[in-house]
Amino acid sequence: MKKQNTSLKTVLRILQDTKPIAGWLALGAVVSLVSVALSLVTPEILRSLSDRLYGYWEPVHLGQSAVFDNKAFGLECVLLAAAYAGSSLAAIGEMLIMNNVVSRHFTCAIRIRMSDKIRRLPVRYVDQTPNGEIISHMTDDVSTMGTTVHSFLETLISGVLKLIGIIVLIFLLNPILAAAVIVFVPISLVLSAKIAGKSEKYFAAVRKKNGEMYALTEETFTGFDTVKAFHLENRQRERQAALCADMRTAAQKGTFLASIVQPITALSNNIAYIVICIIGGIFAANNLFGMSVGTIVAFVLYARMFAGPLESIAQGFSMLQQTIASAGRVYQMLDEEEMTEAAEETAPKGEGNVSFENVDFSYDPKQPLIRGLTIDVHAGEKVAIVGPTGGGKTTIVNLLMRFYDVDGGRILVDGKDIMQMPRNALRSVFSMVLQDTWLFSGTIYDNIAYGRPDATEEEVHEAAKRAHIDRFIRSLPQGYDTVINEETTNISGGQKQLLTIARAYLANRPILILDEATSNVDTRTEILIQRTMDDLMKDRTSFVIAHRLSTIVDADTILVVNNGTIVEQGTHKELLAKNGFYAEIYNSQYELLN
Amino acid sequence: MKTILPLLKPYRKQIILTGILCVASTLEGTFLPYLMSRIVDDGIAAGNMGVIWKLGTLMLVLATMSMLCAIWTGAVNARISAGFSHDLKRGIFDKASALDFENFSRIGTSSLLTRSTHDVSTISDVSGMFVNVVVMVPIMIAGGVAFALLSDRMLALILLLSMPVAFLILFPIVRHLDKLWKLSDEYIDEQNRLMRERLSGIRVIRAFDKEAHEHGRIVHATEEMAKYIIRANVRAGYVNPLCMLVLNLATVVMLLVGANRLQDPIQLERGLTAGGIIATVQYVALILNGVMMLSWTFVFLPHLKVCVNRVTEVLNLPEEPADAGDGAILGGDLVLENVGFAYPGSEIKTVSDLNITVREGETAAIIGGTGSGKSTILKLLLDFYPPTEGTISLGGKPYAEIGRGGVRDSVSAALQKGMVFEGTLFDNVRMGDPDADEEAVKNVLDIAQMTEFLHSHEEGLNYRLAQSGANISGGQKQRISIARTILKPAAIYVFDDSFSALDYLTESKLRKALNRHLAGKTQIIITQRAATAMRCDTIFVLEQGSIVGSGTHAELVKSCRVYREIVRSQLGGEAV
Fold this sequence. Notes:
The complex is a heterodimer. Chain A contains 19 helices and twelve strands. By secondary structure, chain A is α/β, with parallel strands linked by helices. The radius of gyration of chain B is 36 Å and the shape is elongated. At the A-B interface, helix 2, helix 3, helix 5, helix 6 and helix 7 of A face helix 2, helix 3, helix 5, helix 7 and helix 8 of B.
């Protein structure tokens, strides 16, 4: 009951979202009504035409004389052609309206709303939801919603009206034959729906195995060298062969079941056809119930029309289930709680003093991470954050930048509580250079100017020079206009890192956050990167996730992070004297050295 | 096509059977309107109930037979298509895993992956449809025209003419549909790419307060995408109504012409009847349905051709030649003499003039940045490629004489990525030595510092690793692959950047245990971390494919500028 309630709510909400296009939908409905009405008229005209043909031929055939009314016949033919043309044109008109309106003003609008929503969602949401999922909501789920709205007219208006129209018309024509049609045509639909459901089960199994095979193939090809080095070819082949065999069995069954739907439908349609011919024939031969050859023809045509709307209505219902699920996911995202913003328009002064006062924080309330953290960082000082990989060093960055908010205590920048200022004002005093260099697809120039679109060309070039990347950029055929995208291969990881440093230079902000890891960078570039990072840190307050001994040793404060918690803090000397976790890390490095 | 067709050979008999059945089923179906015309002409007109019942029963029998034949066709077709797809999938996978490294890397991992999954599926799906159309459509058309001829030549001619007319109208519409679909797919990809970029860069974007800007980019992409989707859908949307229009107008023309000829006594003499005209009109739907199927096939044909070409290319590649060597040599000094190597098709040597000697039982390090040629040396050591110049020998015997199998038995290597496979932890480690028992596996896992991991999971050794190790971290993958490497009985153990994802503390513990376990064995450590290389017996410094210095840490600090730079940048000035 509760489930039905939410389903209903979802459907109502979809309807609400179609309000802006309600006018167009109404127009589409009118146009499709025209199309339906015209298509229902045509068997009637054909009935009359057939009767004229037969009415002329029968007496002539029996040696009597008859007159063929060519004028009336021609007129009816013109009428028929006009009805056909009108029906097709109306169908095309409806197709054009629905495609344009639904795609432009419904699916597109929802996608834009979702994109807009992301602006106001906390980083926590993006961290916790796999990116692929968000993207699939935005494309696949919205597409499903669009298809349903699109086929709404087709199924509900055209389908239902057509169905009612046909039933009324055939009963008016001949109730006995009508009963025959109504009995036989739906049987095939029920049967084929049952079989299709069964075959879908097998196809689901095939898809599942196919997914496994994809993963196995991917694993084998990406680990090709390991496969060869450990003679694993046969192991992988056997596994692949087993999956292929499973797929073969399931696919054979599924394909067979799917293939019998068509013959069964054809048979029951044919039975209806034959019953019409026999009963109609007997009636017509004996002149019973006003049956004529034309009526038989009209019946055959109506029976053929009958299956179409039934199918589309059945399809519409199964589609509706999918749509409710898809729309549920979309609306869930649109309903996510948004970040609240401080009302006061106070910005930090930009001196670069930072202090943590008794800060508590945890990602998961069950697992407290940071408790009572207190640090005082004066303008121009350097804080090194060290610890094993995966230990949670980025948490401090998350809190400083308000990607996450503290649970207790406060963080002050230039003496002001960061919770009291709008996020963008707080962030305007920070620059970041992160380990995974994020550049957007666009020109090098735009990437450097990302933080300050108002910068002059000279300033951009100057920033690049200071990041030691200007000469390289100029050596590229397109220079600063070189477009960086996924396919970019002529820019190395190190050069990308230098670009992000140039970006930070240009932004010129008093507090700096650096993740100084330089794996996958060649030696020369690494040296360059470190020199420019050191240069960048001059006269700025900096928080450095440190990997190098030199950074750690001369930092003003070292925070030692392990398992997400700050286990120690102090200067290099203090921490060594403590002989705790820091001393162990430091000595292990020392051990490797000696 | 030539390579794909032999795969259909085992199904030759079934294909012939399905063809015959298909003909039977289609002809039986096509008979019905003709029989209806006979009911009208001979039954109703003559008031003959017997004829109506007789013909009606005949229709019922034919319709049932048609259904049975169609179901039988379905069964045979399902067997053929499932079998063909099975054979194709296995064929390409078997071939791909037997490729040598030259051909493998020429085609590339991702392309090979697409070819052996997406392309193969497309071929088996589309080819099934294609065969259906090729067999059925001509029969439908021939049957329809033949029955029309039974009633009137002129009507048959109009029927025949309606086909090219329909084709001429439909073909230009569907012809470029695949391009439009591809284009709209590209725009969908573009929107998704922007979204992925935005989600992955959310911190930088917010740090620079650029959410509005990124939102604007996505709005633009979404609007563009809608434009192209509309264009493709509208074009596809024209097909059905237009096809119906042609069908219906042909019906009207046939009725007009039929009525005209019915008034001609000569035609009546020839046997033209009202029932005949009414039946012939019904064949229009049958034939135009065939034309529509044919047009759609033309949409998919170019796509099918591309897939077939791509799959055929792989199937035609040569397999790795049989191993001609003498077999395992487990021990002795490793000597690289003037070794140079250029990747196939490349003129630039990745490494050149390598002279490296590692004595039995020594630990050597090869240090260098990315692009220095480190990993190439590993590939040469494992005989993935033969060197283009010079020789590599083990225990005094050149690699060529030992043979690929022997070399890979003597050298055990942990590769950079720390590859793990779907299966249990136990299985993954035991790949190093299929004969190892639980005790031995636990021991190497302990050396690889994985005991804590083992204890933290109830399943212990039976812990299931997901495909490509998606459920464990990079460091854990590296340690599992180290365990696998040292379990394998070999003479030389190579570690290619195998410690890069480990923190110094773990690395230190692991290296200590490793040295104890591998005492007396040769170790080669390939790395870019100075701290990792420092304690090795000999360090080879690699830059741009050449060795620019070799010796101990102390010697190199004095003599080698490149080494000094590496040490200074990584460990700070005081380490030099």
